[in-house]
Amino acid sequence: KNQVEQSPQSLIILEGKNCTLQCNYTVSPFSNLRWYKQDTGRGPVSLTIMTFSENTKSNGRYTATLDADTKQSSLHITASQLSDSASYICVVSADMTDKLIFGTGTRLQVFP
Amino acid sequence: EAGVAQSPRYKIIEKRQSVAFWCNPISGHATLYWYQQILGQGPKLLIQFQNNGVVDDSQLPKDRFSAERLKGVDSTLKIQPAKLEDSAVYLCASSPATGANTGELFFGEGSRLTVL
Do A88 and A106 contact (CB within 8 A), yes or no? Predict the structure, then answer.
């Protein structure tokens, strides 16, 4: 069964600190993996999209990594800001079915 | 560039009543999606349109949910009659691509439904 699991479920960090969010998937065959940021009460906004051949992709202070062999991805946030407080959703695209499989997200709270 | 527009942003109804949500995708985007997001969960696909045709509605509860995209642009999602478990945020997304594998998805702000 195609699944996407994220950890931790929630995370609290202090402003200025770094953090890493994890995403494990069992989707096969794999097409691409996306990370979205969803502020409370808003729609998700895309941070990165990575295909099979990409190991790392950055978007400002956000850096996503992908290990297609172990079917793991991580999202690293550097020098966190209060505005980083949001849910971060990992989404994997299945090649054959053309479907997007969503994780349940990691809720990040950044405190001053 | 204008984003995906949704309305209403909030709706409170009693169970067994009906409700409709409207979505205006980004101009020129061929594919439109409706997702249901229950609190604390990731979005779940309800229906996917390509232009005005349905690509995937396998998870749409067709006994109470309906959706249309008559002219291949705007779309409406209707729930009739609503149940308590329909309380959720209904997200509309659009993509310039014709498939989920190739396209970037742009989401609207969502319509939050509370069923009492």
Answer: yes
